[in-house]
Amino acid sequence: MDTNRRDILKMGGSAALSGLMLSGTAEAASGSFPVVVEPLTGKAGYRVANYLPRMGATSRLGLVANDGMVTDIPAEATRQKLTLSFDPTSLISLAGSGNQGLLDLAKLFKGRGQATQNVNQIILLSPIPKPQSNIYCVGWNYLDHFEEGLKNREDKSIKEYPKVPVIFTKGTQTMNGPFDKIPYDGGLSTMIDWEAELALVIGKKGKNISEENAMEYVFGYSAYNDTTARDVQQKRQSGQWFKGKSFDGHGPMGPWVVTAGGVDLKDVRVICRVNGVEKQNASYSQMYFKIPAIIAELSRGLTLLPGDIIATGTPSGVGYSRNPPEFLKPGDVMESEVTGIGIIRNTIA
Questions:
Q1: Residues linked to residue 48 through DSSP beta bridges, in sequence order
Q2: Contact (Cβ atoms closer than 8 angstroms) between residue 126 and residue 250
Q3: 20 to 30 Å CA-CA from 285: which of 16, 123, 146, 294?
Q4: pLDDT at site 25
Q5: To 10 degrees, what angle do helices 73-80 and 98-110 make?
Q6: 3-state SS assignment for residue 166
Q7: Sign of the CA dihedral 269, 274, 275, 277?
């Protein structure tokens, strides 16, 4: 591990409170990078992971405690003889279960037994491996990122910052796990770029949602990376975003979802590192359009459903705007962190 990465891991209170633990995924097992279980910044919330307790098992949801111990939700519900209000194998189902689902989590967590696993013994999956619709994304949501792209933008007519959030989508097949490899095919693109983001998961069906009520529709938050093929986006597709952002596996998410009550947005920072070197770092307060504005604009005439994913935009520091430009190549490790939520780590392969 290089000095830069080691120093980063020492920052903050998460290491002291929670310890550093290796993921049970194939990537972490072979790469020996520790996973940080960050302390929650909100007053009340839960880390909900989608995972395999062992290779060959079926996936289920688990509650991840500060010490990195994971409680198997369906097994614990059976032990406590608790009838759940949601399918314990589906985060979409949990997100749609409302307050009753959160109450169920509280009962499970409070009464949990000793039959837990350390996070280094499990295989962490994407919280929502099969999204029910395209991932909604926000473009240019940090002023510095808008400005850094001006010189490279194919459409030179766009010079003024938009008055409403710019929305695009990524295909469902882009979803990838928090520690899974990201496919690289040099015959399709040699300009793969990083875009770390805060993602949110919708928890309630809604349409034409007001900004004042928008936060009531948020179930929780996760780390995300809107990995992008810049040559496809800028040249082959003439600046149109969908295809260059929709390669298979180019949307890792995780390592879990933290329910809304566990996150204080004013403390959130979005950070990206490549091979241990920091490339992006910005706070939620630097977002131009905050989450209420994003939800309000997206839901105008469009129904949002529980389990829908919204990626809220990336800060400045992306590769194609650097001088000279930098792009991901096979063997690189892309690390996306949302403070107070977690870190995902993906090798380009």
A1: 63, 257
A2: no
A3: 16
A4: 39
A5: 80
A6: strand
A7: negative
